[in-house]
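Handout, section 3.2

Students often ask what a structure token actually looks like in practice. Rather than define it abstractly, here is a full record for Phasin domain-containing protein. The first block is the sequence as you would receive it.
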Amino acid sequence: MTATAETVQKYYDALIEGYDLLVDAIEKANERGIKVTRQFAADVVAGQRDALQLGKKLAAEPGDLGQFYAALLEATTAAQGRALAFTQAAYQEALASGADARELIQKLAEANRETAAAAVEVARQWAGANPFAEVMKKSLEAFQAPAAKQKKEKAATA
């Protein structure tokens, strides 16, 4: 493999590394979302069952207010516990998401540095191997010299 081909390969490897970092981040975020959604769905099902059980107890003994009050208190406490557990789980996932985002940004910055370095090296090698590069360089220098001279003359007259 030639030096230029190696450099180009390095560039594409760096691009792929950055892409893989993004894909991993998306997968982690997706897993978090699924985890929170599953817990929410389980909490909704549990709440519905508690409500049905409460209705069943009331229907069985409509005149027993003591039993109804105890069942209502139990259902309310269970609902509050589920709400607290869900809030804690969502908060934990949000914290983990923030930590993952910071880590991702650091990794992407490093991957982008590697990609930029590889791109500069590819451009440098291409410019060295391209016969038109020297012509373009000389043409650019030819335009810059008169422009610099004119700029100095303007500054001297001002």
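Discussion prompt for tutorial groups: The two ends are 58 Å apart (CA to CA). How would you have guessed this from the sequence alone?
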